[in-house]
């Protein structure tokens, strides 16, 4: 009886080791990298909102003026938003093809990207403002 119990323990240890080596040799998921990318997109959108473009005018205020077809810093608000977002994104190290910036359904970035995306958005004046980061 003791020998059978000992054999059961040995078999359990064998299968536990087999299970461990089977799953420990597989590459891990990129869960941490994906979380970092999501956080980067979220923070960059916050930077875009709070960036001061002139005097006391933040880019978030210019976005609101763009929605209303208004002016900010003495120029067309939508043109200002498009130019400043491109500069901020370039300073972050993103290529023009790697992001899309939307105010409502209107695209304010050089082009559309393909592949998987991370998205963050907020609503101002009843309109969604989205920043999309694209990766392959």
Could you characterize what this model shows?
This protein has 136 residues and is α+β, with helices and mostly antiparallel strands. The chain has one domain. 49% of the residues lie in helices and 25% in strands. The protein has four helices and eight strands. The strands form three sheets. Strands 6-5-8-7 form a four-stranded antiparallel β-sheet. The protein has a two-stranded antiparallel sheet with strand order 1-2. The protein has a two-stranded antiparallel sheet with strand order 3-4. Strand 3 and strand 4 form a beta hairpin. Helix 3 packs antiparallel against helix 4. It is rod-shaped and about 90 Å long. The model has no long low-confidence stretch (mean pLDDT 87).
Spell out the key features of this protein.
alpha+beta; 4 helices
Give the topology string: H per helix, E per strand: HHEEHEEHEEEE
Beta-strand portion reads 25-35%
Helix content: 40-55%
Number of helices: 4
State the separation between the terminal residues, measured CA to CA: 60 Å
Radius of gyration, Cα only, in angstroms?
25 Å
Largest β sheet strand count, sense and barrel closure: 4 strands, antiparallel
Q: What ranges have pLDDT less than 50 throughout 5 or more consecutive residues? A: none
The pLDDT mean sits at 87
Find the count of extended strands (DSSP E, 2+ residues).
8
- Assign an overall shape: rod-shaped
Specify the structural class.
Answer: alpha+beta
Order of adjacent strands in the largest pleated sheet: 6-5-8-7
* Domain unit count: 1
């Amino acid at each position: 009886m003791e020998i059978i119990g000992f054999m059961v323990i040995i078999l359990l240890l064998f299968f536990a080791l087999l299970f461990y080596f089977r799953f420990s040799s597989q590459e891990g998921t990129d869960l941490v990298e994906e979380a970092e990318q999501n956080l980067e997109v979220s923070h960059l959108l916050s930077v875009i909102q709070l960036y001061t473009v002139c005097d006391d005018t933040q880019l978030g205020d210019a976005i609101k003026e763009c929605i209303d077809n208004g002016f900010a810093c003495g120029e067309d608000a939508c043109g200002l938003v498009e130019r400043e977002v491109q500069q901020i994104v370039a300073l972050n190290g993103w290529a023009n093809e790697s992001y899309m910036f939307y105010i409502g359904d209107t695209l304010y970035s050089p082009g559309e990207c393909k592949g998987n995306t991370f998205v963050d958005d907020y609503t101002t004046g009843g309109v969604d403002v989205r920043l999309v980061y694209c990766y392959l």
